[in-house]
Write a structure and sequence with these properties.
By secondary structure, the chain is α+β, with helices and mostly antiparallel strands. Helix content is about 15%, strand content about 25%. The chain binds zinc ion (2 copies).
Length: about 130
């Protein structure tokens, strides 16, 4: 099931919620990937992988937390892998909407046991202070 991760800014009290996990998307189809992708470039890649390369979604797509190390912000994005051609694997790469830096996935240590380690030191999207 999907879960969500919430942050509260210690400075202005702004709350953000990020959806995580697979939840209703525990379906390895290209259709599901399309439904959860807003990037036109990524959609084009998906079409190519599906139709030209007969790609296969090899992992259950899962929403994960990603960070932008430039603006110190967190984002939730869909992580998935598509195998195509001669054992090649496509992994999506996401860019920060603000500074265009590549977003890197962050691991929540111990998250499978419900004792999530909070990512700290990130900027609030509202007031811009590093007070998460
Ligand atoms: Zn704030
Ligand atoms: Zn950024």
């Amino acid at each position: 099931m999907g879960t969500s991760y919430g942050t509260i800014c210690k400075s202005c009290g702004n709350e953000e919620e990020y959806m995580l996990g697979c939840g209703f998307m525990s379906n390895r189809s290209f259709e599901h990937l399309h439904e959860n992708t807003s990037s036109k470039i990524l959609k084009r890649h998906l079409n190519l992988l599906e139709k030209e390369y007969q790609g296969m979604v090899i992992d259950i797509p899962i929403l994960k937390l990603y960070e932008c190390s430039q603006c110190k912000t967190i984002h939730s994005r869909l992580k998935f892998a598509v195998e195509y051609g001669e054992n090649e694997v496509f992994n999506p790469q996401y860019n920060c909407g603000k500074c265009k830096s590549i977003l890197m996935p962050i691991e929540l240590v111990g998250s499978s046991f419900g004792s999530q380690m909070e990512p700290t030191g990130y900027k609030c999207k509202k007031c811009g202070k590093e007070s998460l």
